């Protein structure tokens, strides 16, 4: 389950999948969400990704949410831009996280400012330099605290490769490696919703354009640091799906900062894909309710997945399931 603790964000990344909702000032209610964690745990939820619309570290109860999640047997991951990860907060979060992935998409201050767009108005380049240094220091503290406390949490980073920042990829890799992260994941821009402000055509980068760049990036690898190039994700932007309908949403779901439980990220704001609201019903009532049954039927029988965004989260699940459900295996009786 992907959970959005807040709608607010302290950055305005140009590729953000949620920029069209204008970062609403809303937070998941502490008491309701803590009881919600008990509900989903009792019904077998395996993991929660704290990410979504805004910056999860903005929520004043985020450390409590993560701690409670682990206590009830739910593995937790988190995506963050890292700016708000103080030493005190890192000490509370890291022992209870399975992974923390930092979104870091510019290798120099000018590019970082252009891509991340900190939400404060009229930020000078000197202030951007200070901000970028602060983020790297926060990451460095997290990695050193992990070593000191012998924690098992994975600390990684993500770089969304765009025409606007690809020239700074190598310097970003150098900065992040020096900060002590385990890996950097290089991904393409994913167009998730028709309301997104970033032009989906501008974000396209063909694989052949970046072969040399990726080879140079890979040269930074060693036994403690990996450069993960999501080649399949770049390829998926260039090809159609070979499955027709969506079964993946049986295995994942999204909870936004308003308490709406929906099928997936691209459709979470469309009422016809919202299963229900946790302030009105329990998770059991929502998951087993009539509306979810109708949505499930539509996803599995009528939805044209080729009209869905490339590289959506259910895509990998659907590709795996398609190999099982529609396998064309020769001599099947001899397997």
Automatic annotation (TrEMBL):
Organism, as annotated: Helicobacter valdiviensis
Keyword ATP-binding tagged: no
Alphabetized GO MF terms: catalytic activity; iron-sulfur cluster binding; metal ion binding
Domain Radical SAM core: 1-221
Keywords linked to the UniProt accession: 4Fe-4S, Iron, Iron-sulfur, Metal-binding, S-adenosyl-L-methionine
Domain of life: Bacteria
Classification via Pfam families: Radical_SAM (PF04055), SPASM (PF13186)
Protein name: Radical SAM protein
Membrane spanning stretches: none
PROSITE patterns in UniProt: RADICAL_SAM
InterPro entries named among the record's database cross-references: 4Fe4S-binding_SPASM_dom, AdoMet-like_SPASM_containing, Aldolase_TIM, Radical_SAM_PqqE_MftC-like, rSAM, rSAM_sf
Gene3D superfamilies attached to this UniProt entry: Aldolase class I
Cofactor section: [4Fe-4S] cluster
